[in-house]
UniProtKB/TrEMBL annotation:
One of its GO terms (molecular function) is oxidoreductase activity. Residues 4-131 form the Gfo/Idh/MocA-like oxidoreductase N-terminal domain. InterPro entries: Gfo/Idh/MocA-like_OxRdtase_N, Gfo/Idh/MocA_oxidrdct_glycsds, GFO_IDH_MocA-like_dom, NAD(P)-bd_dom_sf. It comes from the Bacteria. The lineage of its organism: Bacteria, Bacillati, Bacillota, Bacilli, Bacillales. Gene3D superfamilies: Dihydrodipicolinate Reductase, domain 2 (3.30.360.10), NAD(P)-binding Rossmann-like Domain (3.40.50.720). It comes from Aeribacillus pallidus. This is Dehydrogenase. It holds the Pfam family GFO_IDH_MocA. The keyword Ligase does not apply. Residues 140-287 form the GFO/IDH/MocA-like oxidoreductase domain. Keywords: Oxidoreductase.
Amino acid sequence: MKKFNIAMIGAGFMGKAHSLSYAGMPMFFWPAPGIPHRKTVVDVTDELAKEAAQRFGFESYSSNWREVIEDPDIDIVDIVTPNDTHAEIAIAAAKAGKHIISEKPLARNAEEAKRMLDAVREAGVKHMVAFNYRRTPAVALARKYIEEGKIGKILNFRGTYLQDWSADPQSPLSWRFQKKVAGSGALGDIGTHVIDFARYLVGEITDVMAVTKTWVPERPIQTSGVDKLGTVKGEAEAPKGQVDVDDEFTTLVKFENGAIGSIEATRNAWGRNNFLTFEIHGEKGSLYFNYERRDELQVCFADDPSDSKGFRTIYTGPEHPYGQGLWPIPALGIGYGETKIIETYDFIKSIVEDTEVSPNFYDGYQIAVICDAILESAEKGIWVNLK
Ligand code: SOE
């Protein structure tokens, strides 16, 4: 069984999730397609990198990512840094011949994402973007039902991603509120997960008509420390800085196959935590998913007996996508960790079997094109066609 040496660039919240997936993948999916080995972790200082190596189980550490990606022992570069660094690291890693997995969104805009796509294609390396939610078994099951024709031709997709961690105006001005670092706000950070669902389940988006809002135009400047997603309050007297990204967006969408729908995301919806949902209506039935109840897929089929028609719940388990590797009975509990473990499984498998994995940098680029179009549509107040 081949061992794959991982260099993980970054060591925050996503570093934790990815490290867990490297350790856990062979425990779940056995025989594993390959063994991910936590070789080197990179953080901004040696001290932080050393601590990350201890915490996340890496063999070595560094504060120099350029040196690390040139290391001939490294097979895979894993990018878990803020958005403004993805392109530089990925392009250098591709040139060094490394396979790459990058956190989402792939880049700050389509131009940057295109350069990354060109680099991996030219280098002939494997590439993946970490839109992990589509690897929730219930979401993969929805796709299976759609492919099997269980709900017929799709008419409508409604997707939401609602959180509340930035609803408090004292939630500090982290990099996620700065266009030069993040590219966009709720759109790139969480809206892209819904766009990924829409493309995965329905197909390519052709037109968008959007509105965006920035509800909290200034926030207390965060002087140090990692982004704690609203759990740290800025000091009342701290100087404030400008938020130059969207807090919320809503867009109407048209799909290539004729379906229509809507996508919305906000981080200012009190009471909503990880309210990532879709409802899909087809000619022969409907599907509903909410990540806050991620073991469940709600289904309603038009040919259900008329006296018992209505949504019912399927609890995912061994019979469902990825079920053989997960837990032995349904509803034991799928979590964020499992979605990341499955992601690692599919990525390593694609390297070993020399196949294309999705979502990859092409998908990341297409999603960036859609995001740019949403921002353009909101700014000009017009429908934007993507072709
Ligand atoms: C913050 O909104 C965040 O951490 C996103 O960046 C992630 O993609 C999402 O999975 C959880 O929330």
